[in-house]
Amino acid sequence: QVQLVESGGGLVQAGGSLRLSCAASGTRFSINTMAWYRQAPGKPRELVATITSGRSTVYADSVKGRFTISRDNAGNTVYLQMNSLKPEDTAVYSCNAIQYGINYWGKGTLVTVSS
């Protein structure tokens, strides 16, 4: 019964920054991997970044050098710092967590980057 709630989305101009947060509840920290995905209208969902319980990270090529994924000490909150935003970053960003091999998803938060 893991619940994920995202926050921090909004409207920004190209070149600006946003920080997304995802808070997990309903667990005493047994989450191994957390990740951020995004889906733009008419396009498939894509992986943005992942972070393990050991804090190892993986990034999509499209966001390398611009986005940073991190996790709090307790491991129940994941962040996505997004810098140098581009219009093509516009999408609904969703938080994902894996616990005991089961996938959990947040409802998503909309990020809109204007040109």
- Tally the beta strands: 11
Mean pLDDT: 94
Helix percent band: under 10%
Query: By helix and strand content, what is the structural category?
Result: mainly beta
Per DSSP, the total helix count is: 0
Oligomer: single chain
Largest sheet: 7 strands, mixed
What gross morphology would you assign?
globular
Q: What fraction of residues sit in β-strands?
A: over 45%
Runs in which pLDDT lies below 50 for 5 or more consecutive residues are none
Radius of gyration: 13 Å
Distance between the termini: 40 Å
Write the element-wise H/E pattern from the N-terminal end onward: EEEEEEEEEEE
Topology summary:
Blueprint: E1 3-7, E2 10-13, E3 18-25, E4 31-39, E5 46-52, E6 57-59, E7 67-71, E8 77-82, E9 91-99, E10 102-105, E11 109-114
Parallel strand pairs: 2-11
Antiparallel strand pairs: 1-3, 3-8, 4-5, 4-9, 5-6, 7-8, 9-10, 9-11
Task: Describe this structure as you would to a colleague.
By secondary structure, this protein is an all-beta fold. Helix content is 0%, strand content 57%. It has no helices and 11 strands. β9 and β10 (102-105) form a beta hairpin.
Key structural traits:
single chain; 115 residues; mainly beta; 7-stranded mixed β-sheet; 4-stranded antiparallel β-sheet; 0% helix; 57% strand
Short description, anyone?
The chain contains no helices and 11 strands. The model has no long low-confidence stretch (mean pLDDT 94).
